[in-house]
Design brief:
This protein is of the alpha+beta class. It contains three helices and seven strands. The strands form two sheets. The protein has a four-stranded mixed beta sheet. A three-stranded antiparallel beta sheet has the order 3-2-7. The longest helix is centred in the middle third of the chain and has 13 residues. The mean pLDDT is 94. This is NUDIX domain-containing protein. Belongs to the Nudix hydrolase family.
């Protein structure tokens, strides 16, 4: 079984909008929480800051560890199927974070192609990955 550890940020603005990134790497294009996989030896808080900057253009600081979500994806459901056809265990570390600088911009040549702010009502109508609802529940928003 493969293991992927990733860190994500729940970021809101003064109008209670939530920052999401549009994931284009999977079987379908869908909105997700900004964040992503840790590099070897990387601290999760540094990873979420790096990933948010890459995907959204914003500099952030984490304010709270919200939780860890664990999921095993069967080999047949993996986005990138390997030659060994092994399941993937994902550990997703979710932080509450706030913007400290930067400006909204889109990632180029990455797993996301855009980022945007959404109200909770707008999110309810979006094509989104399950992590969005999981993270918003952890944050007490949903």
């Amino acid at each position: 079984m493969d293991l992927r550890v990733a860190a994500y940020g729940v970021v809101t603005d003064d109008d209670d909008r939530i920052l999401l990134a549009r994931w284009v790497e999977g079987r379908r294009v869908a909105w997700t929480m900004p964040g992503g996989g840790l590099e070897e030896g990387e601290d999760p808080e540094l990873a979420v800051r790096r990933e948010l900057r890459e995907e959204t253009g914003f500099h952030i600081e984490t304010t709270e560890l919200l939780g860890i979500h664990s999921r095993v994806i069967p080999a047949s459901r993996r986005v990138r199927r390997d030659e060994n056809h092994t399941p993937l265990h994902t550990l997703r570390i979710v932080y509450r974070a706030q913007v400290t600088g930067g400006e909204l911009r889109f990632e180029r040549n990455g797993s996301t192609d855009m980022a945007a702010w959404f109200t909770l009502d707008q999110i309810g109508k979006l094509q989104r990955v399950k992590l969005v609802d999981i993270a918003l529940r952890m944050a007490g928003i949903l």
